[in-house]
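re: ur question from earlier - yeah i can do the single chain one, its not a big deal. heres the input i used so u can compare w yours
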Amino acid sequence: MTVVILVSSVLLASSVKDFLNTIDSIVGGKEVVTDIKNYELNMTSVVYFQNDMGAWEEYQRLHGDENRIWVDIENIPQRLIDAFIAIEDQRFYKHGGVDWKRTLSAFINYLPFVNIYNSNQGGSTITQQLIKNITNDRDKSVNRKFREILRAQYIEKELSKKEILEAYLNTISLGSGICGVQVAANYYFNKDVAQLSIAECASLAAITKNPSKYNPDTKPADNQKRRKSVLDKMFDLGMISSKEYQTAVESEVIVNKAQQSNFELPINSYYIDTLISDISADLAQLKGITEESASKLLYNGGFRIYSTINPSIQEKMEEVYKDVDKYFPIKSRKDKEKSVQSAMTILDYEGNIKGIIGGVGEKKVNRGLNRAWESPRQPGSTMKPLGAYSLAIDRGIISYSSVVDDKPVPNYYGNGKAGPREWYGGYEGRIKVRRAIAHSANTIPIQLISKIGLEDAYSFLKYDLNFTYLSEVDINPASLAIGGCEYGITTTQSAAAYSIFGNHGIYNKPKTYYKVTDANGSIVLSREEGRQVLKPEAADIMNKLLQGVIYDEGGTGRKAAGYSSMRAYGKTGTSSEANDSWFVGGSPYYFASVWCGFDQPENMKVTTLASTVWRTVMSEIHKKLPKKDFEMSNSIIKASFCTNTGLKAGPNCNTETGYCVPGVYYKQCDGVHIYEDEKTPDFVGELTSSQDTTTQSSSQAATPDMQNNESSSGTASSGSETSSLTSSSSSGAGSSTASDSSQQGTGSTNSSN
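and the output i got, formated as tokens:
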């Protein structure tokens, strides 16, 4: 039928050009040429990591059913090209796509009892084999062969021999799911293709006739036999000298299996799963396609991915999380076979994810549930510094040394019932902010958020800190101040949010990559710049306050202490009924967030598990790191505050060194230190209109090794005076207040610590 159509087209064609166009429309030659030119895009993507010396090393390859990396013809050794031509198509440079002598002989050999042509080569030329590789057209009919012949002749007119060879050598199947000579050289010999010996070149060329039979890894004897045939042909054709031939024949070809795991389809780490999800989402947004399509593009797009992973950190995390009996011994009361679950994210202060774990135990599937990336849980008290304290300090509502009143908020539960209840029972009355944070008081964040404003706090958490799982249902004190959210946050989100306290108030969106390039090196994706979401001084003050959670007597995070000789800051969190245990904490190098709980929430009984896991992992990571301190902003205001009132110290006050943001000034304590409830402001250290203050000169800047609780008796230090008042765009309290139970979050607040 095809022949009839072709003859008819010849008769109807008005010119040779029309005839060729007609042939092309029948056989699809133009489409094949286009596919060949674009086939470089259908390549394996490679993930790199940066080693301790700053150089980029290959970490893992991402590929679908075929593993393929394109290499330019200039980087393919001539001996390898010769090996393939010798055994597959020795007249390659002479024919126009079809070797008619071989084609006719191969056709005659199909006839019964006829064998007039005996050769190690088949009937197909390299050009014809390329067509099969590109189109996967492997029908054994005469029509397919005729179509292939016409396509080969068309391709030879459109592409140079060099282009055809390059495409062929990059698409040829070489066993073990491998396509192309570069990956084959990597896989079988752990070498770049340019480093192959003549014997190794012949070994690869030997595979093509039957990849399963002549595989040098699984069938070394058969490969050796055919390798000899390749070398014989190369010598007969004058491609190698007698000496080179003899050396190659006598050489032992050793398959190096050390790196073979890089070329198989492994069970990815949680980091690689996260990387794929991260890039797929960004590619989908960039190209306006679905994430499923973007994921396929990632696997086959030949991308070069410059990841943020620190393999050593990831490995240490995996060691802990795989040892279930030792580190996660808590069993479900509902199902004794189920251990408690956990997730952990570690990043640096630029938002680069260095390691991530999405579950306890051996990982058995790819792209399964990743609790660190996609499973929000109620954050409990880890919300307090984010939704309340940080904004209150940023706006000058409180300072490092403020004294606050741990007392119930009227009508908190509605129907005139005050609250919230404290997890430690009762109320402590007037306490320092540092104590309120370290001991995780519930009432103080509720009082603070009424001054900040619910809408302002929600906007800060949702949009500045990227808490995507928050909804309008959470615009209430219980959710925003003490973490009783409808859904919650992930460890990755909390790590990125808390890292602002070690990064002078700059928020960086957590990322798994620095950049992604295409096969030609052009940048496809790059990371966005960080954003200043908190005054640098406010972030630094929060850092110092949160150190008290770990090191102060009565601090709820004391189990995290001892991870290193370096200081750390952090916060514990426990949701209602102890369903969720959190510890979020940062060293001068890294910040880590840990969540523990059951997938189907139930009381864990042990609320310090997350702190223990944090200390275990972070101690391993920091063992060999040089000692380092947190840096404080030079512009932070350092002053002497009254230990009784939290106001600027007067001549008769016991004092401690405290810190506040520039442009915020506190009235001076009168030294009487007598409190009458009806005359006491909500926050003893609240703002005053007075513009005088004790400030710090540049020579008095807070230093990293400054103690965090510098108390003494006597008078305030004089310092330097200023009359200038710097206003802040973020200053000013909102008008929203907590009122009735309808505003409360879904989580109970009686056990948040």
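The chain has 25 helices and 21 strands. not sure if urs matches, ping me
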